[in-house]
Amino acid sequence: MAVTHFPFKAGRLNLFTITLVAILCAAFYLVGVWQHSVGKAILFVGGNYGCTTSTATFQTSSETAVVDLDFTAHHTAADLQVIPKARRPHLPPCDPKLYEYTPCEDRERSLQFDRDRLIYRERHCPAAGEILKCRIPAPAGYKLPFSWPESRDFAWFSNVPHKELTVEKKNQNWVRFEKDRFRFPGGGTMFPRGANAYIDDIGKLINLADGSIRTAVDTGCGVASWGAYLLSRNIVTMSFAPRDTHEAQVQFALERGVPALIGVLASIRLPYPSRAFDMAHCSRCLIPWAQSDGMYLIEVDRILRPGGYWVLSGPPINWENHWKGWERTAEDLQDEQSKIEAVAKSLCWKKLKQKGDIAIWQKPTNHIHCKKNRKVFKFPNFCQGQNPDTAWYTKMEPCLTPLPEVSDIKETAGGQLLNWPERLTSVPPRISSGSLKQITAQNFTENTELWKKRVAYYKALDNQLAEPGRYRNLLDMNSFLGGFAAALVDDPLWVMNIVPVEADFNTLGVIYERGLIGTYQNWCESMSTYPRTYDFIHGDSVFSMYKDRCEMEDILLEMDRILRPQGSVILRDDVDVLVKVKNIAEAMQWECRIADHEKGPHHREKVLVATKQYWTAPASEEENQEKQTSSEN
Prior knowledge:
Among the domains are: about 185-375, Rossmann fold (3-Layer(aba) Sandwich); about 430-610, 3-Layer(aba) Sandwich (Rossmann fold), CATH 3.40.50.150. By secondary structure, it is α/β, with parallel strands linked by helices. Residues about 1-10, about 35-65 and about 75-85 have low confidence and may be disordered. The relative contact order is 0.09.
């Protein structure tokens, strides 16, 4: 039988250790009680320690001081202040009559300015004290626009309640009114057979199919049918027209889901960089090209790419067959065409073809010959010392914007662009050439990949952004290199890329070299567009950029003005900034939440996701009576 042996010695040792530890703990406890007994204190003053009873005695460098210790409370509950909550601003709806309010193109304000050269139709924004502190309402009965591509052909009457163009342009197939909606047959003054047939005619003269033409600008666009039908050919057009007697023409374009801005060729540069567009177009746009020393054609030359095209149809082209219908004399029209031809030649443009109602000129690929022929053409001279990309309230000048230098006559100034779609992801010439010294090819590639990941994260946060066709018109308030738009290029939408004039780098030229479109903007002012332009607005560090420049409230009210009901917003910024934004946005009836950075919660940068609630102006008595009459019928 096995005998069990117990470790008596080990047990005695453990008991001894425990007893010793207990005695030591008790001893240290008693010492501590003695040192901290009532009336004792240890002070450190003047570099010396002192141990005292109810009065503290301590030794300084020169003398001994005695201080009475006061243990009574010095604060009561009445002294405590409640931390105030962030002020919730009061942002009521504006007057229902302001449902189409465009602050910087306000008709009453414009009448204060010179009518010469249409200066009164340029941007004239309200002063700081005149900015409205209210929310622009949608008209009564507003509906979400039709989805693309149906929106190209239809728009709700309740969204743009103007029938003027249906009467004024009745015979030109611009727009027709049918029950509760407008229909856009795709016609225009110079293309009664429709925009598609007209574009086909242009395509017989220059190549519109190989991707070499990607960006276009339409001056005096009407309802933007030309741009609308070019989209199916992978050509994206910046359409613009003034807010004038052709009521709501740009608003119609935006309701159709076509890129457009309010704008005019007058005395300041168009808000685009130099060498932006592959093609410029004017179809009976009523711009006096031959007047003002050819200033307007000089401006078109600035924004045209080397080798780009200018397409002109309407007066005076083909005047021989149209002069009677245009109610002008043959001599007057012939003289106008001769002057246009002379200006184009002085810009070193080559007239490629004129067939029927269409004439096309081409800008040279470089200025080697053009500089030599200045001995023949004394005017215009080349501009000296101008930044050709500066275009925010920049005055036009009657001088020719020089192209970047080349070493060979066959070389394309500024660098040769790849055809679309390769140009979207290839390194833009402005970067590869070193024109933007602080941005490298590696920066560009990394930025492109970064935004692919960010947009994927956005789609997880906003399922409507992930739903193809839900959003059509998008705005990026601080685009940098256009990475946000590039990541969405396969979706049925377009993005208006903004490069703020306060940005560290002027990168709008890079964005155009990628085959995208955009404009300059100062977000302390309103944008040149109608209310309810965009389905979705994105902003990267916008409010940090404009801190101390203007009121956060004013920027958010402008965003609310141009955002459609039930449209969404995604903003990324420092968390403290977004908390303030959220407070104001909720006062504007936006539903908001703040989400973590895509890399996790340990980043100060966060993402605010918001949706504008649906609300409209109340229906007027007249509108209520019309509804009642229609229901009875």
